[in-house]
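Worked example

This section walks through a single chain of length 137. The input is the sequence exactly as stored; nothing has been trimmed or padded.
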Amino acid sequence: MEQKDYLMRYFEQMGIVLAALLGFRKKGDGSGGLEVINEALKEFTNMDSQEINSIPEDHLLDELTSKRNLLPDQIKFIAEMLFQEGEFYGIENKPGKGLQSYRKAYLLLRHVDANEQTWSQERTDKMRYLQSKIDHG
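Given that input, the structure is written out below as tokens.
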């Protein structure tokens, strides 16, 4: 029952956040979207965007999995928020920050992909998109 409650909370949280982000994207409000991302990260992972972005890429997985003991769904959530952050940095015309977010999102999604027992077309497509963004940086 506890696992079911956790999963329900996770999906509800993700749905609320993505709906809010869609509204900010439609309005072209990058700063509003970035604030929602920051608050969602704090709520679901006890880390804010600045803290996550301050972790060097080569230490990110170890920091999140071994040192912080985050659950796989939290890693997926961070990957999604980093992806969204990259998109909103594009709206804000801050491609350097967006690229950093895309690179970390890709790194986390590769980790998820390697450790999940189920294949996901959505994850595969997102990884291709991120790789394209990174390659054309």
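What to look for: DSSP finds seven helices and no strands in the chain.
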